[in-house]
Amino acid sequence: MSVNKEIKRVTTHILQKMKVDGEKISMLTAYDYSMARIFDDAGIDILLVGDSASNVMAGHETTLPITLDQMIYHAASVVRAIKRCFVIVDLPFGSYQGNSKEALGSAIRIMKETGAHGIKIEGGEEIIESVKRIISAGVPVMGHLGLTPQSIYKFGTYAVRATEEAEANKLIKDAKLLQEAGCFAIVLEKIPASLAKIVAETVEIPIIGIGAGRYVDGQVLVMHDMLGINKEFKPRFLRRYLDLYSQIFGATQAYINDVKSKDFPNENEQY
């Protein structure tokens, strides 16, 4: 049972207190009003309007094609649904890599046009000036290290990151830099659990994992994966809580059959 169940609104202060108190942080992605409302009513702590919308909502192979305007559309829909949880929005590829001024402009657009509570940005030392500039404007920033999907063509694979000592040391260094720059939390994606444990114990801010083991301060999953809307994606770190693909498939077939057989609508379903 959450010790923060009765709070009216999750904030960065509450998230920090959860880490200190040892309460795990729950986080899911959301991209639309209806699902966000259900997640918020259920008591989720953080909703991430992820650039994964490029994959699960638009059908692209990577997260790269989604635009800032499209992220703003999804984020505004999510924010209109929530009453309690903290809403974070991904800065999409191409909206911050150029320079820190461009990054700040993108973050400000998201905050002003969506009502979201903060942004998430991928990378460490290479984007630290952008992080500092955004935070200096009063925008909360969540970092993202490990497997960073916007750099997938650089990596060339979705394999586990930071398994070698040099990359692991850089990740720890980057986590410290993000904390020093003022980030309120960091997502660690697809790295060894032992490394994630070191990071969570080294920094004071919350560490949220996806494929990063159980020793971090919270977990995040993509809603389509967690609910079983996707069939093909089956990584080791994923636990499916529903099989919505099969349920929706079956319900659709039943509807089609009822229409074809003239069973729907019946006498009680017409005016």
Structure notes:
With 271 residues, this protein is α/β, with parallel strands linked by helices. The protein folds into 2 domains: 12-240, TIM Barrel (Alpha-Beta Barrel), CATH 3.20.20; 243-270. Helix content is 41%, strand content 14%. The chain has an 8-stranded parallel beta barrel, surrounded by 7 helices. Helix 2 packs across helix 4 (68-79) and helix 8 packs parallel to helix 9.
Kindly provide the radius of gyration, computed on alpha-carbon positions and rounded to a whole number of angstroms.
20 Å
* Structure summary, number of beta strands: 8
**SSE-based structural type:** alpha/beta
- Compute the number of helices: 11
Distance between the termini: 47 Å
CATH domain fold name of the largest domain: TIM Barrel
The amount of helix comes to 40-55%
Strand content: 5-15%
In CATH, the homologous superfamily of the largest domain goes by the name Phosphoenolpyruvate-binding domains
Sequence of strands across the biggest β-sheet: 1-2-3-4-5-6-7-8
Q: What order do the SSEs take from the amino end to the carboxyl end, as H and E?
A: HEHEHHEHEHEHHEHEEHH
Which ranges are low-confidence, i.e. pLDDT below 50, for 5 or more consecutive residues? none
Mean pLDDT: 95
Main sheet overview? 8 strands, parallel, barrel
